[in-house]
Write a structure and sequence with these properties.
With 366 residues, this protein is an alpha+beta fold. The chain folds into 2 domains: 224 residues, no CATH class; 115 residues, Roll (Chitinase A, domain 3). It is built from 14 helices and 8 strands. The chain has a 4-stranded antiparallel beta sheet. A hairpin with a 2-residue loop joins strand 6 and strand 7. Helix 1 packs parallel to helix 6 and helix 6 packs across helix 8. The protein is elongated. The protein starts with a helix and ends with a helix. The N terminus is likely disordered.
Length: 366
């Protein structure tokens, strides 16, 4: 496939592809107060050499600086390092991979690629501004929070696009997805991805025997509750306002009585789960006979019942096929990245991560 087409395809795929670590406000709030005995000592402008390119701390911490700063302002340096080290290590690995890929792609790419690369980069910058409603000032503020200028951002995008075009050339030719693969993935993921929740809508007279009012103290509560339930049931007529009957006859202090109630059938807790079992055999507008269940007697009018179900395979098979293709691509790209990362010194990488941590903490606390 021509190189220009590779770059064009990658441009189409760019829609918020950059991963950023996320820290919830709850996680931040739980952090202990910082104990500051001074900031880490400066250690010079350390960079990581990768082939014929260098990776700087600004490139690593810039895209995630806003998230790092939230942690830095709430913790001392040791706490900060422990919390954010995995995120910074991930960014370093990504920059190493980008640097190697960019160098290789630049060697392989003809000069005529530059015009197409300029066009896609410009489109990406425009899309970034549009993410802020077209407000250039807001987009610029976001870049400043990431410690990036427009020039930094443009250069980063150019490198990203060109690097990914090189990856595209190294990927194995895509093989057809078999029917058996799709069925297997569908069955493995349908509970999480393709489940359609059920619905039970009903009116309910709920007689709570323990809270029965206006009773004869000389007779059993259970007997009197059954008599009341039978009296209500026999007196119900199709044209009756069931909600009015609920308000007139429910003998309970529970909020489940009265009005139209709506639940997922599987979400009803005992003793109300018995209602879902009865609803599955009823038609809309039908009433149940009195149902005894753990100290309650229910009379339910069904309005609507739909059991939990799953979207049929035929309807989602294109999504399943796309997921398999995406997984194959992720695996192939990860394999390429693993091979690339081995080219960078592990010792240098560890020292560079430590340097990036110090720089991020110092910058956040200026």
């Amino acid at each position: 496939m021509p190189k220009l087409l590779f770059i064009f395809l990658i441009g189409l795929m760019l829609a918020g592809c950059e991963d950023k670590p996320q820290f919830t406000q709850e996680e931040i709030d739980k952090m202990p107060p910082p104990v500051r005995d001074g900031l880490p000592e400066a250690s010079g402008g350390f960079t990581l050499s990768v082939g014929d390119r260098t990776v700087t701390a600004e490139e690593v911490i810039g895209p995630i600086f806003e998230d790092l700063a939230k942690i830095a302002l709430r913790s001392d340096f040791d706490q900060f390092s422990q919390i954010v080290r995995p995120a910074v290590e991930q960014q370093v690995v990504m920059r190493i991979s980008d640097a190697i890929l960019y160098s290789r792609a630049k060697k392989d790419a003809a000069d005529k690629v530059d015009d197409e690369l300029d066009r896609i980069t410009t489109a990406e910058i425009r899309r970034f501004v549009m993410d802020f409603g077209g407000d250039y000032a807001k987009a610029e503020q976001a870049l400043k929070r990431m410690n990036m200028s427009w020039g930094d951002f443009e250069q980063y995008k150019r490198r990203y696009i060109l690097s990914q075009s090189y990856i595209a050339q190294q990927l194995p030719k895509e093989q057809p997805v078999s029917f058996s693969e799709m069925i297997a993935l569908y069955n493995d993921t349908k509970e999480q991805l393709y489940k359609t929740p059920g619905l039970l809508r009903f009116g309910l007279i709920d007689i709570d025997i323990s809270n029965l009012r206006d009773i004869d103290p000389n007779r059993s509560r259970e007997v009197q509750a059954k008599e009341l339930a039978n009296e209500i049931y026999k007196g119900i007529k199709p044209q009756d306002d069931f909600d009015k009957l609920v308000k007139d006859y429910s003998r309970t202090n529970k909020a489940i009585s009265g009005g139209v109630l709506k639940f997922n059938p599987d979400s009803l807790a005992s003793p109300y789960d018995v209602l879902a079992r009865h609803a599955s055999a009823m038609k809309p507008a039908e009433f149940t006979e009195p149902i005894e269940a753990k100290g309650h007697i229910f009379i339910m009018q069904l309005i609507e019942y739909k059991p939990n179900d799953y979207e049929p395979f035929e309807k989602v098979q294109n999504q399943v096929r796309a997921e398999i293709s995406a997984q194959r691509m992720r695996e192939a790209i990860n394999k390429i990245n693993e091979q690339l990362i081995q080219q960078a010194s592990v010792a240098d990488r560890a020292r560079f991560v430590n340097f990036c941590l110090r720089e991020a903490y110092r910058t956040a606390n200026k």
